[in-house]
Specification:
The structure holds two protein chains of two kinds.
Chain A lengths: L3 H22 L5 E6 L2 H19 L2 E6 L3 H9 L7 E5 H9 L21 E2 L2 E14 H4 L7 H4 L9 E4 L6 H7 L7 H4 L3 H14 L3 E5 L2 H9 L5 E5 H9 L4 E3 L5 E8 L7 H11 L2 H7 L6 E2 L3 H4 L5 H4 L6 H4 L3 E2 L2 H20 L1
Parallel strand pairs in A: 1-2, 1-3, 6-7, 6-8, 10-12
Antiparallel strand pairs in A: 3-10, 4-5, 5-8, 5-9, 5-10, 5-11
Helix pairs in contact in A: 2-13, 3-4, 4-17, 7-9, 9-17, 10-11
Chain B lengths: L1 H48 L11 H8 L1 H34 L2 H16 L2 H12 L4 H8 L13 H26 L2 H9 L4 H29 L3 H6 L7 H12 L2 H25 L10
């Protein structure tokens, strides 16, 4: 009759330690362990980057999925050793770096001289660029769905059910854009609790129309596929994959909030030096071009375009293509490092009202 | 002489009794060690962690946060509301079924039992997603109902409280039925017959004789359902559509948000303490010993 929360937690810790001891035992010198997000995304990484890069270096790379930067944090703090490299959003890496659980990347080994400006940081070597967009169901609205965030928040002009993320990330920005704040001023307005409250109040105006708070990329893609909601916030690549599978979904780049994903190394990783060399290998343009064939997340390395490694028609589908990028705003990771915890609690409060 | 013999007898008897007590105690030691290692120490550790702040020092910040943010109160209220409603619907559906099973022959009852146990043995995740497929806006149930002309607009079964309840009741039902059925089987059917022979109508015989005798099983089942519901994670997360946030979900999001066990442990401690208070009150109303009573 003991509440099994505690029991479960204990089991989790025990399992973590158990797995950790097993994996160290079987670790060879030329083996790296990398973790990512699973689904269509990791499939693209695996086929396009991880395995070809490992082959080129003559090493073995073992893949697994994980739950985000909190897993890295717990692993480092508990002294476990489960992976050498992880794939993470820039914001995740920034907060991990701030908490001191990541190795500083050595940019004398990793060449980022051809990266787009700002697409790498002390703890994260940028690999692909994605966007949060407003997607709509073309069965409901045809071609003229919510092409701006103002439309997304306008329940008179666009009646119908909506979905938003169950976490604060890249959601407050949408509310302020809808409220008429210019792209370049978003983070200035959000730089106080009043600003965050203003964004939340805007979300409150459409809350009765939010049918679902989605949890993952797979879940919002499924919501659109099943026609469960008429519009949702979400990642462009997932919608493109859903569209290929027959989902009635469209989005406009004018709603785009660009963000980037990269690789980091947990503090004290056994294979730190090898991991650094492997990340350097993965930064090469040919891998990024190959990855972009599987999912519409654009390369951070300019060389992909300069060397013509990507067909023009495909390049135009990427969030980072100049024609698409010019409409979009860029997510600011520094804001998340400073405000995410406070904003997340306020967001949950709004959700539970 | 006779007195002395009597004394010797008594002394050796009490010695034997003592030895037997020690033996029994010895036999329970492995279990006590297990309980200590698996329950008492982890809970103590959890309790300790809940007082550790983000900077690693002793602090009440994890509890202060719960008082300052209204979200936590709402989440606890939702947790108890959902758990109570689930228990209520489990009783509503489970009691008649257990009663029916206890009245038919054991052969047929075993068949019914298989019907109860097969879903019980199916993965929780599978059942939860199955409900999602059945209940969603363009799911099987809505589509059939619209095709048959019963409804014109799809009913919102899922991504809300009702969807969560449907899924949780389905998963929890066996936990109520199993102890309740065992209890009902053990009720001496002659008691009901005696009531009837004394002139009670079937309804009266049921309510004054059978029902009171089934209360221990009902309470045991309800408590198991209620307490298990308090820690539910997967089903409300999938079927609640983010609109039903229970304590376990907040515990997991706090680990992610604060990168520390402390922020999550405090929630666990509050949930544990509130649950214990509820059990304490319940034990005042009905003796908990009665729950384990075997007839």
């Amino acid at each position: 009759m003991k509440p099994f929360l505690i029991y479960r937690k204990f089991a989790f810790v025990a399992a973590t330690l158990g797995v950790a001891s097993l994996s160290t035992a079987s670790l060879a010198e030329d083996t790296l362990r990398i973790v990512s997000w699973g689904g269509a995304y990791q499939k693209g990484q695996s086929v396009g980057i991880f395995q070809p890069a490992a082959k080129a270096m003559g090493i073995t790379v073992k893949e697994d999925t994980y739950g985000g930067i909190s897993d890295v944090k717990l692993m480092v703090k508990s002294g476990a050793d489960k992976f050498d490299i992880f794939s993470s959003g820039a914001g995740g890496c920034a907060s991990g770096g701030k908490e001191g659980v990541l190795e500083k990347l050595d940019y004398s080994v990793i060449d980022v001289s051809n990266h787009l400006p700002g697409m790498y940081s002390d703890y994260c070597a940028g690999a692909d660029i994605f966007s949060v967009v407003a997607a709509w169901n073309t069965d409901t609205y045809g071609d003229n769905g919510p092409r701006t965030w103002a439309d997304f928040y306008d329940v008179k002009k666009f009646p119908g059910t909506r979905a938003m993320r169950n976490k604060v990330d890249a959601q407050l920005e949408t509310a302020l854009l809808a409220d008429g704040v210019p792209k370049e001023d978003i983070y200035k307005v959000l730089d106080s609790e009043e600003g965050i409250k203003r964004a939340l109040d805007k979300i409150r105006t459409i809350k009765p129309h939010i049918a679902v708070w989605w949890t993952s990329g797979a879940s919002h893609a499924q919501l659109m596929k099943d026609g469960e909601v008429d519009m949702t916030t979400g990642w462009n690549g997932r919608f493109d994959v859903a569209k290929q599978d027959g989902a009635k979904v469209a989005y406009d780049w004018k709603t785009g909030i660009m963000d980037w994903e990269g690789y980091g190394i947990p503090k004290g990783a056994k294979q730190k030096d090898l991991a650094m060399k492997y990340i350097a290998e993965m930064m090469k343009p040919n891998y990024m071009a190959e990855f972009a064939k599987y999912i519409t997340y654009g390369p951070t390395n300019k060389k992909v375009y300069e060397l013509g490694l990507m067909e023009d028609s495909r390049a135009r589908q990427m969030p980072s293509h100049p024609d698409n990028a010019k409409h979009q705003m860029t997510l600011k990771t520094e804001w998340y490092a400073k405000w995410r915890t406070i904003a997340a609690e306020m967001y949950t409060e709004m959700m539970t009202e | 002489m006779a007195v002395l013999e009597h004394n010797i007898n008594e002394v050796s008897l009490s010695r034997l009794e003592k030895r037997e007590n020690y033996t029994f105690f010895g036999l329970t030691v492995p279990y006590l060690v297990l309980v200590g290692a698996m329950i008492v120490i982890p809970i103590g550790w959890l309790f300790f962690l809940s007082f550790i702040g983000r900077d690693g020092s002793f602090s009440f910040e994890n509890y202060e946060r719960m008082i300052n943010s209204k979200a936590y109160l709402r989440i606890f209220l939702t947790t108890f509301k959902i758990s109570l409603l689930t228990t209520f619907f489990c009783i509503l559906l489970g009691y008649p079924l257990a009663y029916f099973m206890s009245q038919i022959s054991r052969k047929w009852a075993s068949l019914c039992m298989i019907g109860v146990l097969i879903p019980f043995w199916t993965s929780l995740l599978v059942r939860t997603y199955a409900w999602l497929v059945l209940l969603q806006k363009k799911g099987l149930i809505n589509n059939i109902a619209i095709d048959l002309g019963i409804i014109t607009e799809p009913i919102k079964f899922v991504h809300n409280t009702s969807g969560t309840l449907i899924g949780m009741v389905h998963i929890m039902l066996p936990f109520l039925i199993l102890p309740l059925y065992a209890n009902m089987r053990a009720i001496d059917s002659h008691c009901v017959k005696a009531a009837s022979s004394l002139g009670a109508t079937p309804v009266r015989a049921f309510w004054t004789v059978f029902f009171p005798l089934s209360i221990p099983g009902l309470l045991a089942g309800s408590l198991i359902v209620f307490v298990l519901c308090l820690g539910f994670y997967v089903t409300p997360a999938v079927l609640g559509g983010g609109r039903v946030i229970m304590a376990a979900m907040k515990i997991s999001s706090n680990i992610e948000l604060y990168f520390s066990w402390g922020a999550a442990s405090a929630l666990g401690v509050v949930l544990l303490v509130v649950t214990m208070i509820i059990l304490f009150i319940a034990s005042k109303l009905v003796s908990l010993d009665q729950l384990g009573q075997r007839r």
